[in-house]
Write a structure and sequence with these properties.
Helix 1 (13-25) packs across helix 11 (271-283), helix 1 (13-25) runs parallel beside helix 12 and helix 8 (212-229) runs parallel beside helix 14. Helices cover 43% and strands 14% of the residues. It is α/β, with parallel strands linked by helices.
């Protein structure tokens, strides 16, 4: 079987973790005789200016029709805040072009949330796009467990909520044995911290406006608690290049000698190798405190203690969907004391917390695998 996979593959190691996770479960449904060719969607974005830029046109349809399946996701490709898109989303596939694509389509593990102001007309555009997709004979659409299902119900329409299932983000099927990389010498206890710049500015329904200065001050308190009150070191984990800006700001809150002796800043490294390298450091850590979506998804997937820093509804909703809402804090208010309390509780009750999380995740995995099993049968691709 030949699969064309449309997604983002370079620029955010969380995306790679999602794709690796999906590859881990794919043989359960179609066997092992398949090949996947990646098609980078970032090269369609308006900010992309290099010569190999491409667009959603007849050439795209012709390419897709050379394969047995067009796979789209994971990612946030049904987020509906983009201007000048036929669908309001990054999938700028108009009705006529969609009709030219003859192969089965699977859009899965994708977000459907507004992260910015919604341009007028974008919701009707998305409804039309979903109508066209759902009316196709061999098409499967599923949103990930990040609150997108509720957005379908509340903002798009109950009929879409009823027709489109929720599956686990594919990153929950990611794993890592920790052998590739550790940021400190063997035996060193450490906390992985992931902080961002971009997510502080995203809009959310359930989380208020975030004051960046307050955020930095509160994170400084958390970091200095770790350095002064515990024997653990700190490893900062960038997932995209702008995370270095966030790390630089936070290091200004730290004593120079602590920076030299107890802090590690992990490399900016990309693609599947980079993903495995950085998440190997997660696997070897004692605790994770982080903001990015896949920081938290992959920590839960690898059964690591984590405290989520929720700057967006997406991450908060994911913890809630697994019945472990006690593992995150929102950062739209002073939050350092709450993070420190959750960190301490996590370390003191490690076995019980991880057992509960593992049980909840295994249940959710089974439900997701059952959905996929039926989906591949519907697409006429099942060989399991």
């Amino acid at each position: 079987m030949k699969i064309l996979h449309l997604a983002t593959f370079i620029g955010n190691i969380g995306d790679n973790a999602s794709h690796i996770g999906f590859k881990n479960i794919l043989p359960s449904f179609i066997g092992h005789d398949f090949t996947i060719d990646n098609l980078e969607i970032r090269k369609t974005y308006g900010v992309y200016t290099l010569p190999d830029k491409w667009g959603f046109d007849d050439n795209f349809a012709d390419l897709a029709n050379q394969y047995d399946l067009l796979l789209i996701g994971g990612g946030h490709f049904l987020d509906f805040w983009l201007k000048n898109s036929a669908t309001g989303t990054a999938l700028d596939i108009d009705e006529d072009l969609l009709k030219k694509i003859k192969v089965p389509i699977m859009i899965t593990s994708t977000g459907c949330m507004p992260r910015n102001e919604i341009p007028e007309g974008n919701i009707p555009k998305l409804r039309k796009f979903l109508d066209n997709l759902l009316s196709r004979e061999k098409t499967f659409v599923a949103v990930r467990n990040d609150g997108s299902k509720e957005i379908l119900r509340d903002d798009i329409g109950i009929e879409y909520y009823n027709q489109i299932p929720e599956v686990l983000d594919s990153g929950f099927f990611y794993n890592n044995d920790g052998s590739l990389y550790t940021p400190f010498k063997k035996g060193t206890k450490y906390v992985v911290i992931n902080s961002t710049v971009d997510q502080l500015e995203m809009k959310s329904k359930g989380i208020g406006k975030i004051n960046s200065n307050t955020y930095v001050e509160e994170m400084g308190k958390v970091i200095n608690h770790i350095l002064y009150e515990t024997d653990m070191n700190i490893a900062f984990a960038p997932h995209i290049y702008s995370d270095y800006q966030a790390i630089d700001v936070l290091l200004k809150q730290v004593n120079d000698w602590h920076i030299r002796t107890r802090i590690c800043v992990m490399p900016y490294t990309q693609d599947d190798f980079g993903c495995d390298q950085i998440f190997s450091a997660y696997k070897n850590s004692d605790l994770v405190v982080g903001m990015r979506f896949h920081t938290n998804v992959c920590s839960v997937a690898m059964n690591k203690l984590s405290v989520g820093l929720a700057a967006t509804d997406r991450m908060a909703s994911t913890y809630k969907s697994l019945g472990v809402a006690d593992r995150f804090v929102t950062v739209d208010k002073p939050f350092s004391e709450e993070v420190i309390t959750k960190m301490n509780n996590s370390m003191e009750n490690k076995d019980a917390l991880l057992a509960k999380s593992s049980e909840q995740l295994e249940k959710a995995k089974k439900e997701t695998l059952d959905i996929y099993r039926e989906a591949f049968k519907k697409l006429g691709l099942s060989k399991a």
